[in-house]
Write a structure and sequence with these properties.
repeat; 44% helix; single chain; signal; alpha+beta; 4-stranded antiparallel beta sheet
């Protein structure tokens, strides 16, 4: 979906559709609302949302849908307030940041738009929609700077005008040709497959904020045991150590050059399940020990700051459930492994699913995470 800006006209693939529209996370209870939004019946959707939010005012999915409906109904201030509150309470969800950026861009508040998109990318470095939208904002800022340069000194016309023309052509040609400039009107697209990660709210990547450390309702679900496929004995044993301090939760038997491929795979699986168990049980010592000293933190933030953010967003939850399924391991080298799986994350009112990829390396007898991406 697109939103149109003047003079650049377009901010591509804007996520003004709830993560409920993703096929993997659709909630039947709200199917009627999503259908109304897809058919641009925002006022009818708002009436239903008001009724349901009266019963469950803290429901994040309903509140996200409300923000979508408000934006579609051109109630931008209310939409901004709704998405802003969601970013405060659920900072691991990139879509609210992205939608804030779109609404700010419509008001020509480009610095705020840029900051919101950068936060979305910090939250989920694999969020391609935010990367593309950020590029569009940079282009808009460049256009303004070039225009200002011409205004201040017309002698620069020979060098500046070709650059302005390039920016104009970028947004006015090709398959994504923009509509004529006019009022910015967000539109809701049809559901897309979860793999595209454009409309699906991803579960928090471990290094990227799970859920904000906000108070949870008393009815928050109790911590559940991950519903993974039958794990090897070593994986189960490692997971059971999650409540122990320091590196015990992450330390597992490793595959040396003399061990068979199945044994190496089993050790990698054990490390991943132990990491998930430590996260679920809020065992920060075991959780942080699962990451290599060389771990690529999101947004290039310092390791210390990343650990502090993770601690706040994990320990503050009343209950967390992290369930892994469809786990596959590829080992291009004896000391490297790429693990892909489906993750089902629940904390309080938040219930999300995503695909995740971990790159692990064997270090001093342990398999440690060096890179983590969501949506792959």
């Amino acid at each position: 979906m697109k939103i149109f800006l003047h003079p650049l006209h377009s901010l591509r693939r804007v996520v003004l559709v709830s993560f409920l529209l993703g096929a993997a996370v659709a909630h039947a209870d709200n199917a009627d609302i999503t259908e109304l939004l897809k058919s641009n019946q925002s006022q009818q959707a708002l009436k239903l949302l008001d009724q349901r939010l009266a019963a469950t005012p803290k429901d994040p999915q309903l509140r996200f849908l409300q923000g979508v409906a408000l934006a579609m109904d051109n109630k931008n201030k209310e939409a901004i307030d709704t998405f802003s509150r969601l970013t405060e309470e659920y900072p691991e969800l990139p879509e609210p940041y992205n939608n804030l950026a779109v609404l700010y861009a419509n008001q020509n508040q480009l610095d705020k738009s840029r900051q919101a998109l950068e936060q979305a990318i910090r939250t989920n470095p694999s969020y391609s929609t935010a990367h593309e939208n950020l590029g569009d904002i940079y282009a808009k800022l460049a256009s303004q700077a070039y225009s200002k340069a011409l205004q201040l000194d017309g002698s620069h016309a020979d060098s500046v005008k070709p650059k302005l023309a390039l920016i104009h052509d970028l947004f006015s040609t090709g398959p994504g040709k923009a509509k004529a400039a006019g009022p910015a009107t967000p539109s809701v697209s049809a559901p897309q497959p979860p793999a595209q990660a454009a409309v699906v709210a991803v579960a928090p990547a471990a290094p990227v904020a799970p859920v904000a450390a906000a108070p949870e309702p008393a009815s928050a679900p109790a911590t559940a045991t991950p519903a993974t496929p039958a794990a090897p004995a070593a994986a189960k044993a490692a997971a059971e150590t999650a409540g122990t301090p320091a590196t015990a939760a992450a330390k597992v038997e490793t595959a040396s050059a003399g061990k068979s491929a199945p044994a190496a795979t089993e050790a990698v699986e054990a490390a991943v399940h132990a990491w998930a168990k430590a996260w679920e049980s809020k065992n920060m010592a075991g959780y942080l020990a699962a990451y290599s000293p060389d771990f690529q933190t999101p947004g290039k933030q310092s390791r210390k700051r990343w650990e502090e953010e993770r601690r706040v967003r994990i320990v503050g939850k009343s209950a967390i459930s992290v369930q892994l399924s469809d786990l596959t391991v590829q080992m291009p080298q004896p000391d490297q492994a790429t693990v892909r799986f489906s993750q089902h994350y629940k904390a309080g009112n938040l219930d999300t699913r995503s695909r995740k990829t971990l790159l692990l390396e064997q270090r001093s007898g342990q398999w440690l995470i060096v890179r983590e991406t969501v949506g792959n």
